[in-house]
Each structure stands twice: as C-alpha cells, then as structure tokens.
Specification:
The model has no long low-confidence stretch (mean pLDDT 94). Helix 2 packs antiparallel against helix 3. This protein has 3 helices and no strands. By secondary structure, it is an all-alpha fold. 81% of the residues lie in helices and 0% in strands.
C-alpha cells in the first residue's frame, strides 16, 4: 500500500489494515519455517508495511 493511501484512512480502517498485515506476516513466517515460501522478500515487505501503519496510527492519535 502507498503511504498516501494509508494517511487518507481513518483510525478504524488503519486498525483493520494492521490486523490483516499481521495475519499475513504470521502466515508468511509459517511458510518460511516449513520451506514453502518461494519469495522470502515478502517477509520484509510486510514487516515494513506494519511499521508504516503503526507510525501513521501514532501520528493520528497525537
């Protein structure tokens, strides 16, 4: 997701996005541990997206 799109969302939509990303990251970690993940760069991308969403949520709360 683009950062501009994330900044346009409200807190509840950001929270839903965060939950989706956390579930996706968990599934990717499990696939990586069982050697089923073909593209391991997805782990870093989802981790970065989670951090971006959390940062934007903190900015909106302040």
């Amino acid at each position: 997701m683009d950062v501009k799109e994330l900044r346009d969302q409200d807190i509840s939509a950001l929270n839903e996005t965060l939950m989706t990303l956390l579930k996706e990251h968990f599934e990717l970690r499990m696939q990586h541990k069982t050697a089923q993940l073909s593209d391991s760069s997805k782990l870093g991308k989802t981790k970065r997206s989670i951090a971006q969403v959390k940062t934007i949520m903190k900015e909106k709360q302040a």
